[in-house]
Protein 1
Amino acid sequence: RWQLPSDPDLSFCYDMLQKVSRSFAVVIEQLGPNLRDAVCVFYLVLRGLDTVEDDMSIPLDTKIPILQDFHKKIYDPAWHFLCGEKDYKVLMDHFHHVSTAFLNLEKRFQDVIAEITDRMGNGMAKFIIAEVESIEDYDEYCHYVAGLVGIGLSRLFYASGLEDLATDSLSNSMGLFLQKTNIIRDYLEDINELPAPRMFWPREIWGKYSAKLEDFKEEKKSDVAVACLNDMITNALEHATDCLQYMSALRDPPIFRFCAIPQIMAIATLAACYNNIQVFRGVVKIRRGLAAKIVLETRSMSDVYSTFYDFTSMLAAKIDKKDPSAPTTMKHVESILKTC
Ligand SMILES: COc1cccc([C@H]2O[C@H](CC(=O)N[C@@H](CC(=O)O)C(=O)O)C(=O)N(CC(C)(C)C)c3ccc(Cl)cc32)c1OC
């Protein structure tokens, strides 16, 4: 493993990265030196935003201005805010390390991070009050919290000179595919969240299957729960071909792996969740051994194509003709298999 930076602010950032997402930290650290620091700082700035958004103990009239002005706070090493739990409390209480590391980045990287943080913070603020009702709301919310991350990363890759600039549309899809997979996988964890659950499953989808989203926890509602789950997964699969197109355009091997590994985890998760009532009984996680295999064996686009092909075929094998979404699921499956 390369030498930890002597710079105390950056070494705090890499330590935090290790703590908040060990598996992902490994792939970030394999990026080139310039890009690595920018992505590490970007990741922690996003985690900071997320921690504020998720902290239900912060009153709205305090939370909303923090979200909206977060893009200015990152320029102010004097600013910090006590919120979040465990490692996130450490992150927020010592946020000056992140803002100092941010200020030491090249300006072209700072500008990308600041603009994305501005748009994301304002988007989050909008959805603190508004519920996700329609599929359009669902795509808009996922754009703010995940699509913008893809767009920001594409701009950092381009600013580093290592990649051409990917379109906002394909970059957005990279975020939506991951975020929608997380929202689907985390149904039970999210709906049991105390003091108040924040659910992002759109009423336009679940309202076709039950009067209340929490009904899916009930044994007697298993059939409609699985039908709704398959509908949600079918909606997420719409983004898969955009993600394959985005990854096929990447040139730098460390950037490729950084982008490909989460996408493969996502298609593997969707295949495991499809038609699986266990999503409403616990959190369906792909086995650690499989995840480790994915991290080690994803080197080229042909690895990505064959892995997407395999997991999409596994999902297709589980499609029940009687499932209400089956025709649409088959359509998305066919376009993915054709692309691979
Ligand atoms: C071109 O776009 C990307 C390319 C590579 C990786 C990601 C994306 O992947 C991780 C992967 C990650 O963080 N995995 C976790 C495991 C998990 O969350 O289930 C981990 O390995 O700890 C992820 O999930 N999110 C969070 C969002 C989805 C909200 C964007 C994320 C947060 C901050 C950054 Cl800088 C990047 C990402 C991209 O973002 C779209």
Note: The longest helix spans residues 135-159.
Protein 2
Amino acid sequence: MTGLAEASDRGAEQVRQPVPLNSPMPQGPLPSHVDGCFGCGQHNYAGVGMTLELIGDRIVGRFTFDERHKGAPGLAHGGVVAAVLDEASGTVPTTMCVPAVTAKLEVNYAKPAPLHRPMIVSAILDRREGERKLHIHARLELDGELVAEANALFVVVSPDHFFAHGAKEGELPFFGV
Ligand SMILES: CC(C)(COP(=O)(O)OP(=O)(O)OC[C@H]1O[C@@H](n2cnc3c(N)ncnc32)[C@H](O)[C@@H]1OP(=O)(O)O)[C@@H](O)C(=O)NCCC(=O)NCCSC(=O)Cc1ccccc1
């Protein structure tokens, strides 16, 4: 088992409380950033139910694709592969308590992603560019081998970005809203 797998095996039993805007999150298991999220929500029937952890400066997520995520017999759809890379990437600004959204996601599909096999996705901040741009790199691995990777540009937004589309007070505590 890899170091990442061992660290993630600690599970999400100690769920952390949200912290104020722009305060870094403590190390360890992370709660879902929003109830019902496709990536990390534990109550989304179609979702992957990813558990997430902050380990050092890296986000580590664990999940297993199943029949709901199929694109070909036995294999995950390419769009859901992109979604899990996006989820891990989006959790990087979340743990910095910075509201940011995906502006661009470039995916390299190295190998097919099988269903019913536990996978690990990780993400890290490559660099900040100015006040609003975050360049984030994510990797999806199976048994320590690369399945897919992504380079993403996240853009910092005002909390109004979410309010304008129906978010209610208290629904996004990591973003201070
Ligand atoms: C907000 C924004 C991204 C940017 O609009 P504005 O605010 O008007 O800002 P503006 O357009 O001025 O750009 C600022 C700077 O950025 C640059 N730049 C921008 N785009 C590109 C590009 N493609 N390529 C390259 N550069 C680009 C642009 O040139 C400018 O650079 P400059 O300052 O001149 O050097 C808008 O297009 C939008 O809402 N898109 C939809 C986002 C969405 O729905 N995402 C999916 C859901 S979120 C999710 O899933 C994540 C998640 C998962 C899990 C957990 C948590 C999170």
Note: The two ends are 38 Å apart (CA to CA).
